[in-house]
Amino acid sequence: MTVLAQGRLSVEIAPLLKTKIPGPRSLELLETQNRYETSSRSYTSFFNFAVDYGKGSTIVDVDGNTFIDWFGGVSVMNLGHGHPAVVNALRSQLEKITHITEIPTEARIGYLKTLNSVLPGKMRDNSKVLMTVTGADACEAAVSLARYVSKKQTIIAFTGSYHGIAGGIVGATSNYHYRDYAGYPAQNYVYAPYPYPYRFRRSSEGEDISKEVIAGIREMITDPDSGVPPVGGIIVEPIQGEGGYIVPPDDFLPMLREVCDEFSIPLIVDEVQSGIGRTGKLWATEHQGVTPDIMCISKSIGGGIPISSVVYRKEYDNLPKAFHLGTYRGNPLGLAAGKVILDIVKEEQFLERVRSKGRYLMKRFEEIKNRSKVIGEVRGKGYMIANEIVSDKQKKTPGTELAGKVRERMFRNGVLMHTCGHYGNVMRFMAPLTIEDDLLDKGLSIFEESVREAEAGL
């Protein structure tokens, strides 16, 4: 059933603000949270309200204020809040069993069969699935798998990368602050520059930046004096998420695939944020027809239930028992939701709507950029769209503080939109893929108004 056939999923009127934000009841709950919960929280510092419920692409707080959700729980709610098919699948599974480790259930087998049927390229009918819990857990297991099959420890990651911050996988996440917090060194990880067209420093004018990046990687692999030990895997996001919704040139992933094939290096593709229809294809790698050796899946696959999976080539399946452990791997609730979500998102009519509405959004954001002094670039695919905020368009000076002001003004006016990027200066659109047209247009108007208000202070 398509989003169009289901009728309206969201609250009818949004945004609708009845109180000052945060309202009195939200303030009360926030104060209680502050009393008992860690000070390390970040989201409540800019989305300072308390939620009552979510419906489709809207969120209602405890004071009765209704917000348009362009945040989606950090790209988790691709089908929105309380999607009827997902709720029904969860309710049905709740009545059966909510936890069992590794033992087959109908939910587990249904998920495995459905996932296999939609895998990209040569992965279909030629892969195995390892159940994990979170995106970080999936990436950690994927790296362990690459090291195990290659018998080499060094992993190439990329600048701007984010693959999680729990345990050893924090080494694959490029921001060194997370390693400082975790107390982990970047052991056995090296970083290549990600081809970031807006900010890439070319060695010569007109140079293909993918070729420059690949040449650097090739040198890492082949030059015995490069300082890089033998490479056991390369982990990459097909479109960078936390790094700034960076869309690499079309030739980058195919060239990276060629290098991995040439040197028999496992290619790990992290589809945690870019997968499950976010870019208008079920998997972002499908835009370039690239097949990973190992693929990480999480976030929206569980519809809000924490599950993740690693899919890998059958040839890699000579693994010892208990290769990667975790009590909650393959939770039946998440697997039941995952099957239903894949069944909906895989439909071409659903994906075509994401692509066509994505083109519409890109056009509208471009028009806003052309009227703005502070939007340096608009980029993206499908519903994975970035507006990079700068304080000087010519110099491309990162507008970190400006982006924070835009986010704050949007929130006060009833739209949740979050930042990302190397400098925290990128406004990213990651609304549910089921969002209604009127919520797109209202959100765009509030976005432009918030940008105008922020730049007025320059």
What does this structure look like?
The structure is a single chain. By secondary structure, the protein is an alpha/beta fold. It folds into 2 domains: 24-82 and 349-455, Aspartate Aminotransferase, domain 1, CATH 3.90.1150.10; 85-345, Type I PLP-dependent aspartate aminotransferase-like (Major domain) (Aspartate Aminotransferase, domain 2, 3-Layer(aba) Sandwich), CATH 3.40.640. The chain contains 12 helices and 16 strands. It has helices at residues 24-36, 72-75, 84-94, 106-117, 135-150, 176-182, 209-222, 252-262, 332-345, 348-371, 400-412, 437-455; strands at 51-55, 58-61, 66-69, 127-132, 154-158, 189-192, 231-236, 267-270, 294-297, 308-313, 375-381, 384-392, 397-398, 415-416, 418-420, 426-429. The strands form 3 sheets. Strands 4-10-9-8-7-5-6 form a 7-stranded mixed beta sheet, with helices on both faces. Strands 11, 12, 13, 15 and 16 form a 5-stranded antiparallel beta sheet that branches. A 4-stranded mixed beta sheet has the order 1-2-3-14. The longest helix has 24 residues, at 348-371. The N and C termini lie far apart (48 Å). The mean pLDDT is 95.
In short:
This protein is 34% helix and 16% strand. The chain is an alpha/beta fold. Strand 7 (231-236), helix 8 and strand 8 form a beta-alpha-beta unit.
Q: Can you name the CATH architecture of the largest domain? A: 3-Layer(aba) Sandwich
Largest sheet: number of strands, sense, barrel closure: 7 strands, mixed
Top-tier CATH class of the largest domain: Alpha Beta
Q: Tell me the span between the first and last alpha carbons.
A: 48 Å
The whole-angstrom Rg is: 22 Å
Oligomer: single chain
CATH topology (fold) name of the largest domain: Aspartate Aminotransferase, domain 2
The count of DSSP E runs of length 2 or more, i.e. the number of strands, is: 16
Helix coverage percent of residues? 25-40%
**What is the helix/strand order?**
HEEEHHHEHEHEHEHEEEHHEEEHEEEH
**Fourth CATH level, the homologous superfamily of the largest domain:** Type I PLP-dependent aspartate aminotransferase-like (Major domain)
Q: What does the average pLDDT come to?
A: 95
- Number of helices, where a helix is a run of at least 4 consecutive DSSP H or I residues: 12
Strand content: 15-25%
Spatial strand sequence of the major β-sheet: 4-10-9-8-7-5-6
The stretches of 5 or more residues where confidence is low (pLDDT under 50) are none
**Tally of discrete structural domains:** 2
Shape: globular
Which class best fits the helix and strand makeup?
A: alpha/beta
